[in-house]
Amino acid sequence: MKQVFSRPQSLKDVQTHFCPGCNHGTVHRLVAEAMDEFGIRGETIGVASVGCSVFLYSYFDVDVIEAPHGRAPAVATGAKRARPDRIVFTYQGDGDLAAIGTSEIIHAANRGEAITVIFVNNTTYGMTGGQMAPTTMVGQKTSTSPYGRDQHKDGYPIRMAELLAQLEGVGFSARVAVNSPKNVLQAKKMIKTAFRYQVEHKGFSFIEALSACPTNWGMNPLAANERVGSEMIPYFPLGVYRNTANM
Amino acid sequence: MRHDVFIAGYGGQGVLLAGNLLSYAAIHEDKNVSFFPAYGVEKRGGSAMCTVVFSDGDTGSPVVGHPSVSIILNQLSFDKYAAKVRQGGICIVNSTLVKCDGVDLPDVNLVQVPMNQLALDLGDVRMVNMLACGAYAGKTGALALPSLEEALKKALPERNHRLIPANIAAIRAGAAAVQG
Amino acid sequence: MSEKLFVKGNEAVAMAAIEAGCRYYFGYPITPQSDIPEYLSRELPRLGGEFIQAESEIASINMLLGASATGVRCMTSSSGPGISLKQEGISYMAGSELPGVIVDIMRQGPGLGGIDASQADYFQATRGGGHGGYRIIVLAPNSVQEMYDLTMLAFDLSDIYRIPAMVLADSVIGQMKESITANPRPAVVVPEKTWAVRGRAEEAPQNVVKSLKLGDGEMEAFHWALHARYQELGEKESRWEEYLTDDAELIVTAFGSTSRIARTSVEAARNAGFKVGLLRPITLFPFPKQAYAALSRKCKRFLVMELSTGQMVDDVHLSVARDVEVGFYGRPPGAGSLPTPEELFEQIEKAYNN
Ligand SMILES: Cc1ncc(C[n+]2csc(CCOP(=O)(O)OP(=O)(O)O)c2C)c(N)n1
Ligand code: SF4
Q1: Torsion angle of alpha carbons C153, C156, C158, C159, nearest 10°?
Q2: What pLDDT, in 10s, does the model give residues A65-122?
Q3: Which of A99, A144, A154 has the CB atom closest to C56's CB atom?
Q4: CATH topology (fold) of A24-246
Q5: Given this model, what pLDDT does residue A1 score?
Q6: Of A16, C61, C71, C215, which one has the greatest count of Cβ atoms within 10 A?
Q7: Residue C345: φ, ψ to 5°
Q8: Would you list the domain boundaries of chain C?
Q9: Which of C174, C146, C140, C160 is nearest to C285 (CA)?
């Protein structure tokens, strides 16, 4: 247990700006732990997206490029092609990856870019104040779906892990959650596998992490964590959707 | 006549509500009003501030470098903004949370009101912002107390209208605290 | 007189759009303009209109193109990074002679920049912004009341001239609240949109909305026709405000939020006995050259103030008489460092006594 609370080498010893109960912090830690375990901190290039995780460079002790909103997979493609011996990962929110950046993620995945994508699905736009995201649940009220998401007008929440698993270029695609100790352990394993794909040159890897945004859900951290289990997981099932190298 | 007032405190002290209340009171008195909340990065770090300008004529700049009146609700804001008050101006301070002993504000009328204490006496510490508005009206005479009381209906969301009597009591207590 | 409302600049834009008859809005969240989509997501469905939060600004500008092509009034809004993405669509709209209102609540750039006020997108707005050599109508409100009034005007001008129109403000004007009167929609004669695609009735000519022009001489004729329309706009629709300019020996000139701050500084300068006036362009395209030309015949010193390192100053140089001295004071403000009236007063004093 002690291990869980010590700070991974790849994370800086600083206070984060995340709200109390935000799952971004947990996902950051798991990603950093995976980097530590492979000993790749010094050769990793992170690509930050635009969202609450834009300050990636403040927390990860690695070199970072800041990408325009949604374009991280394209930026990562450029970096990886130019420096194929480096480990390149993107860290993106659901507005960033599943709305404005849909084109970039699909084509990077389809090309089988040797990068790792960490996708944080919190069913809302966190940084801009809680607007509807493509992953917002049907009926969920947000600042731009004041009457609740209406699937007839706004469509259904997109399941990215399944969608990308359809693409031949993808090596690994999985969905995890960090709402319980058991799920955190599982998430840690999956994130490690995603990086192993890149370390062992097995192709594009993708992790979707279901995540709580207590602030914009208008919930306390406990209730928010509960919602991940009671509302999100039934619609966004956890599991491995593609695993070409059988890791 | 143009009046400007700067209000600062930490998030949760109701700084923006105070600014809105003064604005609605000024509109009630048929004035033109500009309310400019601190925005963006300034907002982070837990502080809240806003500037209200009202006038019979043009309100002019919504940004004020040296306010004629500042209402300061916490120490951090005092340290940062008290010195900006214009010469001949007024600085109304929540003296429960702000230590201003030994601070020299030349040619500024420093008005100390123990707002947290008075709010606790009224039974609700959330009334600090109302006390501040009352103290402002009482000290400057720029707005009439009945206007403030009337403005509560607009500044408070419907669901909080049951709190209007308590707010009125706090406004009056704030005004009373600066008399004499 | 209708009751005074107390609303944010961004809300005033949304209210005015509804009053102007706009029932179609397409947008994407971005600070500091998200109040506009948030307001319209609440109100448009009640009015039988359509609110779509698109997957991106690129999608939203193209939704605007599609809706406008059918002849309805429609609007989109964004800020720096999103406005950049819209440029392709705006260029296509200009090339297809489509009206439509685009609201730009400027923030700092380049790139992700910051979310505080800036006026550094003046060039992007007034020079067209996208490819192909076109201009759009640009209106620059400096109060919440003008956010309301000029948004309505943007719809009318855009429809009359078949040119996209932009309301260009910044986070100061977008985020501040002021007392306003929600004026009713002005009575304006807008030509019927006979060009709109609505499905082809028997015997009706086919309507095609497009920008591809491959016919012999077609492109050149189009550009000259647009050019003539820009000239006409300049003559008929240039708008500006003058304050204490009659006997001025120094003219301060600024638009939008800066003009609000500068006006108080000019007032202070008058109180200090300086003969200073303010010229504020309300339309940035067309730029009110005539006002500059006329004032510069009697006043030989201008001082331009902007929240940037200097963009509108170029247009001032091009508009004033040759023997005029044009000074500049600009600040590309960082987070929380707006210029104050006191600061601008010092600059005026310096320029005046120079
Ligand atoms: C082109 C462009 N459009 C819009 C924005 C504004 N913006 C900043 S963050 C963000 C979305 C954040 O949501 P998400 O990706 O879900 O991440 P979260 O904050 O929830 O972690 C948006 C729309 C931008 N920066 N650039
Ligand atoms: S707004 Fe939501 S996603 Fe952003 S830091 Fe707060 S809890 Fe996390």
Answers
A1: 170
A2: 999 999 999 999 999 999 999 999 999 999 999 999 999 999 999 999 999 999 999 9
A3: A99
A4: Rossmann fold (3.40.50)
A5: 40
A6: C61
A7: -60, -45
A8: 3-182, 241-353
A9: C140
Q: Amino acid identity, residue A146? A: P
pLDDT of residue A55 exceeding 60, the answer is yes
Residues of C in contact with B77 (CB under 8 A): none
C59 Cβ below 6 A of ligand 1: no
Answer whether A219 contacts ligand 2 (Cβ < 6 A). no
What residue ranges do the domains of chain A occupy?
24-246
CATH of domain C3-182: 3.40.50.970
Between B and C, how many residue pairs show a Cβ–Cβ distance under 8 A? Answer: 88
Q: What pLDDT was estimated at residue C195?
A: 97
Model ipTM? 0.94
Residue B180: per-residue pLDDT: 67
Indicate the angle between helix axes A102-110 and A72-82, nearest 10 degrees: 40
Q: How many domains does chain B have?
A: 1
Instruction: Please state, in angstroms and rounded to a whole number, the distance separating the CA atoms of residues C24 and C46.
Output: 12
| CA B159/CA A206 separation, integer angstroms | 46
Checking if the pLDDT of B12 tops 50, the result is yes
Report in angstroms the alpha-carbon separations of B78 from B44, B71, B82, B94, C281. 17, 9, 5, 9, 39
Which chains have 3+ CB pairs within 8 A of B? C
- A136 alpha carbon to ligand 1 midpoint, in Å? 14
Joined tokens for residue A19: 């709200």
pTM assigned to the model:
0.96
Q: Quote the ligand 2 centre to A157 CA distance (angstroms).
A: 19
d(CA A117, CA A115): 7
- Residue B44 has what pLDDT? 52
Confidence at C323, pLDDT banded by 50, 70, 90: very high
